[in-house]
What does this fold into?
Amino acid sequence: MIRRVKMIVLLLFLTTCYAWAQTELSFKSDNKELNKAFKWARNKALSYAHDGSDLVGHWYEAALPNREAFCMRDVSHQSIGAEILGLSQHNFNMFLKFAQNISADKDYCSYWEINRYDKPAPVDYENDKDFWYNLPANFDMLYSAHRLYTWSGNKAYLDNPDFLNFYQLTMNQYINHWDLSFGEITHRKRSMHQIKDNAKSRFGGNRGIPTYNEGGRGEAYLGIDMSASIVAAYKAYAEILGLSGRIDESKKYLKKATREQKFLDDFWWDNERQAYRSIQYSDRNFDYFMVGDNQAFLHYLLYFDAISDPKKIKDITELYVTHFDKLIVELKSYLPIIFYENGHSDIATKMILDLCSAKNPRRDYPENSFTVIEHITRGLMGINVSAPENMVSTFSRLEKEQNRVEMENVSLLSNKISVIHLGSHKTVFTNQSGPALFWHARMAGQHEYLFVNGEQKPGSQIQENDQWYTYQSIKVSPGEVVSVSTEK
It folds into this structure.
């Protein structure tokens, strides 16, 4: 009897393992080293996910290793990678925790880090008047919550009362209370809302750092990432309001986004040097793009989609192409997708291999593995999602025409999909599970026709960032496999 029970338990275990293997995110390419890097990143990221047995609920590690906590900046940056891995429940819970903990007592900040015990992490929190906080975090989280809706289709990011409260407070009281609007930000006090007896404060002026930049040659007065995050948050909030039917309010916040965009374009651009400033110090002098002292912060302009000039985008990309090997992991983790999107697939892939290499002493930083998943999915595979349109787009960024690359069990919307790219001339898309959706199949260049399952059809063309694409939009039913190519 005991032996029979053991056999049943073993069979159940094996069945569960097989089922997991059948639904696990997978990646295959001609590049064996890239396959190893992906597998390491996937397994490492999943090892940081916790199943809900802790007091905080479902969460994954998103802070310095071994802190048993998640940080607003890191969660924002890791969230799409987590979504791709199927950690939707974790994302929602963690974002909700931050949203629920915004308060007037903390001057409309939330907690910078929350630990597994559902408490603010003691390493950077003493009490509601004395804690560490980087001011771009609220805007980053709002921007990322909108991205999560766009990827997952989870409308709770649009209508959950706690999220709506966080968005409203962030884009009004938070901006006003910390003097962050374009009309006040250049003459605000560097340190605001401090406790009266500063000698008793653990964190002092670090309660309200106006940038993510914590290095440099002096005290940061303002960072370009602050302005970029505000522009991104206004646009995201306007989109959220529009999707909720609040059209007049949406227009109001779009106007605010336009004003902040003008400030960014005017204040941070040095017309004489034809270059962006990166950070302003308390002496009102600027630094520009510098590899040393953690000053290479221009990537936030691209991360937050805060500039549209193709030449400026190219120039910033080239700066990072030249210096990427000298940057710290927290900066490198933003770059591969930027390289993929701007014609440097070879360097993007090399960077992923370096980030995942055992020779990288900081490869276990949680941010690293999660973002690698996003870089391969959205960067190399060109997979992007638009929940409002129930649409998935793909675009091959393979280095060589003869390459083949395949991804299976990609979690998005209410679906799992697989995508195979054969060079840049053919893509095969499978709606593995979930309802019907629309596939926006992109091919590089201008083509009069594309072939859908071998049938010639007129191609539609679009230009973005100085690059032409030809595409077909196809409704793909559950279980259906569809191919699009540039030749029959």
